[in-house]
Amino acid sequence: MPAFSGKNSRSVTIPHLPSRLSRSISARSPRTSRVQRLLKLALLGVLGFYLLELIGISMFQDNLLYYPERAGVGEMTSGGLSPWPTAEDFRGLLAEPNGPARATAIVFHGNAGHAGHRDFYANQLTRLGLRVILAEYPAYGPRPGELGENSLVADAAQTIALAHSSYGEPLLIIGESLGAGVAAAASVGQRAAIAGLLLFTPWDRLEHVASHHYPMLPVKWLLRDRYDSVTHLAAIGRPVLVVVAEDDRIVPARFGRALYESLAEPRQLAVIKAADHNDWFDRLDDAWWRQAIDFLLATG
């Protein structure tokens, strides 16, 4: 190998590399390139999957949030339930107590099925002397309409106003899961008509629940429907009973607790021990329901 020399410097000779080391370096170069290409492909695959997730959440979020079941009015009216206000102008199902009604309760159900699947509310509450309306959403059961927060909330507000004009006070609003978000938003403009709210497995803000289930996605920026119950109930001025399921895997109890902490008095928090999102009802007895309704009516 030639020697390099410079001014005022001694010649330095760079020796030949040992042949085995030279062969080793040469042999590693193609392998390193292949690894780098594979890493790039893997990274592109991860990014592509992430983008698909973003597109999927953005385009099909209604399918992730709403699970309506279609049914005719005849299929939904059974066991003492009747169409309300009429079969032609169907907005829900009505159940009357045996004697005079001490109050009217409107139930806004969760995101799946239809109002006919919630007859257990009617069975329980009519025994306590309440008239019960199992409200139905647009695009659920036999009802036409569109899915989405604006559609469901506007319709729920109309249902509350109609019930108030038909039956007067006191009027209780009950919301379950998604229905708690609908009830909170619809109650803002109907505050004067409402005696109190009973919210089962609610969240504080929908974006928090979405972030819990999709922690790697910027769901805050993707969600069209917000269901911000903290903001909606900030100045409700009515008694609110928040009920959380201790082991809820769909709407973790901490989100319901956060909603409770944001509320002004009068308020109560009830924790159903060892309950999950869909099995809490069977853990409540008559005494629990009586105390809950008494709190709302006595305070409202």
By DSSP, the count of extended strands is 12
Arrangement of strands in the largest sheet: 4-5-8-6-9-10-11-12
Order of helices and strands: EEHEHEEEEHEHEHEHHHEHEH
* Regions with little confidence, pLDDT below 50 for 5+ residues: 1-15, 20-26
Write up what this structure looks like.
It is a single chain. The protein is an alpha/beta fold and 300 residues long. It is 43% helix and 18% strand. It contains ten helices and twelve strands. The chain has helices spanning 19-65, 73-76, 119-126, 149-167, 178-187, 206-213, 219-222, 229-232, 253-262, 286-299; strands at residues 3-4, 12-13, 67-68, 82-85, 90-95, 103-108, 112-113, 130-135, 171-176, 196-200, 240-245, 267-272. Strands 4-5-8-6-9-10-11-12 form an eight-stranded mixed sheet, sandwiched between helices. β4 and β5 (90-95) form a beta hairpin. α4 packs across α5 (178-187). The radius of gyration is 30 Å and the shape is globular. Residues 1-15 and 20-26 have low confidence and may be disordered.
How would the blueprint of this fold be written?
Blueprint lengths: L2 E2 L7 E2 L5 H47 L1 E2 L4 H4 L5 E4 L4 E6 L7 E6 L3 E2 L5 H8 L3 E6 L13 H19 L3 E6 L1 H10 L8 E5 L5 H8 L5 H4 L6 H4 L7 E6 L7 H10 L4 E6 L13 H14 L1
Parallel strand pairs: 3-7, 6-8, 6-9, 9-10, 10-11, 11-12
Antiparallel strand pairs: 1-2, 4-5, 5-8
